[in-house]
Amino acid sequence: MTGERTDEEAGIGQLVSQLAADTREAAQAEIALAKARAAFAADRYKWAAIYFAVAGVLALAALIAMLVGIIFTLATVIGPGWATTAVVAVVLAIATILGLTGKAQLSKKVVS
């Protein structure tokens, strides 16, 4: 070999160059696809979170309305002050039990 390239060597070099270019294009296409999938998923989860938040707010409003109704109903029997105290005490007791149950769930050791 005197430094001149043969047709076969030039062909192999061209093939390697084309392979590198094709690989680069395929990688860029995969990255673009992953970005598109992530954007689609983010949009879907964003709307799901919005719907859950609105549902939570409406459920809280319904719970408050129910508690006010219970207070009004009890007020005819034990007076408004005691009715409010009784309802608040029961709701706080339920909240305490749920909070302690949640804490116990977090404190459980995971068996490996």
- The coarse overall form would be elongated
User: Could you state the oligomeric state of the chains shown?
Assistant: single chain
Q: Which structural class do you get from the secondary structure elements?
A: mainly alpha
Q: In angstroms, what separates the terminal alpha carbons?
A: 65 Å
The biggest sheet amounts to:
none
Share of helix, binned: over 70%
Number of helices: 2
- The number of domains is 1
SSE series: HH
Radius of gyration: 34 Å
* Poorly predicted spans: none
Strand percent estimate: under 5%
Mean pLDDT: 88
Count of beta strands: 0
Keywords for this structure?
single chain, 112 residues, 0% strand, elongated
Offer a concise description of the structure.
With 112 residues, the chain is mostly helical. The protein contains two helices and no strands. The chain has one domain (7-107).
In words, what does this structure look like?
With 112 residues, the chain is mainly α. It has one domain (7-107). The chain has two helices and no strands. The protein has helices at residues 7-78, 80-107. The two termini are 65 Å apart. The relative contact order is 0.04.
Describe the SSE topology:
Blueprint: H1 7-78, H2 80-107
Helix pairs in contact: 1-2
